[in-house]
């Protein structure tokens, strides 16, 4: 690694990469979906999603990718002289957050830094992890857990996107660009962040930065933001338009080449490999459209280097609660029952 050693006393004993999780076999799929749904997703939708997992032998790609992300961060931190355990933990699959924190407590960890593998502010993508981390602290351990604040403004996140997209547009300069992110209920989007509306605002700011970076590389594609992976009740408004509806409209307008960037995901979830690589690709094929899905950024060296820099500052500096910004006390409120949550921090 070319980075110089980072000086300073470690403020944390371990780093935990927090993720959604996924099954490792078909036998784990029913329990995983029950955990995810919490009784709020219609059974017919759960049956449909179970079919998606069956298509891949019941194995989600997200667990392996999060382990690879953790390993890459550990390697980069060690190269800076910051040698500490870097492990993964999940909300809905093994290893669960509470089990991971208990194991770290047994090993003597008292200060733990959590990193959610999702950079945007929303209840489901941020505060839910903060709540689970608080609930998972072993009783009587005295452990403190802090969460890295949301990081959509991380320059390396935009740069990794630019690199991936520039490569795609070098091959298909006339393609139409569709960014996608996970659809969430509109009410959740409206209350996201400290003052509301952060989920969409953060995406738009990141996209504008990426588009500007593409222009520097000589590419000025037409573009729009679409949504994917809706899972809730059909009676509840969710963010639209869906990626497949966008593809249908673009085909009617004569578009024949589409480059799709899953900008809302750091790594490949089932939502990426099924909703985009399978369903959206099939939709595009039926419309005689060429469909190119660029990679997620979680394994891009420029992104990993930038994320490591952010984490290193927190590990060796004084972490400050993000009370005036993302991850403040009232940020991304629980839409059902308020629960205590660990703090989001910045350097």
What is this structure's SSE topology?
Layout: E1 14-19, H1 29-37, H2 43-55, H3 62-79, E2 86-90, H4 97-106, E3 111-116, H5 123-136, E4 144-148, H6 155-171, E5 176-182, H7 186-190, H8 198-216, E6 223-228, H9 243-252, E7 257-261, H10 270-286, E8 290-293, H11 301-316, E9 320-321, E10 343-346
Parallel strand pairs: 1-2, 1-3, 3-4, 4-10, 5-6, 5-7, 7-8
Antiparallel strand pairs: 9-10
Helix pairs in contact: 1-2, 3-11, 4-5, 6-8, 6-11, 9-10
Short characterization:
With 347 residues, this protein is of the alpha/beta class. Helix content is 43%, strand content 14%.
Describe this entry's structure for a reader.
The strands form 2 sheets. The chain has a 6-stranded mixed beta sheet, with helices on both faces. It folds into 2 domains: 14-151 and 299-346, Rossmann fold, CATH 3.40.50; 155-297, Rossmann fold (3-Layer(aba) Sandwich). The chain has helices at residues 29-37, 43-55, 62-79, 97-106, 123-136, 155-171, 186-190, 198-216, 243-252, 270-286, 301-316; strands at residues 14-19, 86-90, 111-116, 144-148, 176-182, 223-228, 257-261, 290-293, 320-321, 343-346. It has 347 residues and is of the alpha/beta class.
Would you tell me the structural class of the helices and strands? alpha/beta
The major pleated sheet works out as: 6 strands, mixed
How many H/I helical runs? Answer: 11
CATH topology name of the largest domain, in short, is: Rossmann fold
User: What would the principal axes of the Cα set say about the shape?
Assistant: globular
Report the β-strand fraction as a percent range.
5-15%
What is the averaged pLDDT score?
94
CATH architecture of the largest domain: 3-Layer(aba) Sandwich
DSSP strand tally: 10
Tell me the count of domains: 2
The strand order across the widest sheet is 2-1-3-4-10-9
Q: Order of SSEs, N→C?
A: EHHHEHEHEHEHHEHEHEHEE
Distance between the termini: 23 Å
**Gyration radius, in Å:** 20 Å
Helix content class: 40-55%
